[in-house]
């Protein structure tokens, strides 16, 4: 039987992963609705991807 700390860790990972996916999908929707220039849209999507990687790094740094 596993200690309860592993269950808590898995729940935190699950919550943060759902949070990041929700953030990415929501911001992509806002960008597609309000940004009409293709170059600017792609630039914002690139920044969003970098933001996701940075947030993932910070979350893993916080947890580990």
Structure overview:
This is Succinate:cytochrome c oxidoreductase subunit 4. Keywords: Membrane, Mitochondrion, Transmembrane, Transmembrane helix. The chain crosses the membrane at residues 6-27, 39-60. InterPro entries: SQR/QFR_C/D (IPR034804). It comes from Kumanoa ambigua. The protein is mainly alpha-helical and 64 residues long. The chain has one domain (4-63). The chain has 2 helices and no strands. It has helices at 4-34, 38-63. Helix 1 runs antiparallel to helix 2. The longest helix has 31 residues, at 4-34. It is elongated, with a radius of gyration of 16 Å.
Using brief descriptors, characterize the structure shown.
mainly alpha; 2 helices
């Amino acid at each position: 039987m596993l200690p309860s700390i592993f269950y808590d860790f898995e729940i935190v990972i699950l919550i943060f992963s759902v949070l990041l996916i929700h953030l990415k999908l929501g911001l992509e929707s806002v960008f597609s609705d309000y940004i009409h220039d293709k170059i600017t849209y792609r630039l914002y999507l690139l920044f969003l991807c970098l933001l996701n990687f940075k947030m993932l790094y910070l979350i893993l740094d916080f947890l580990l």
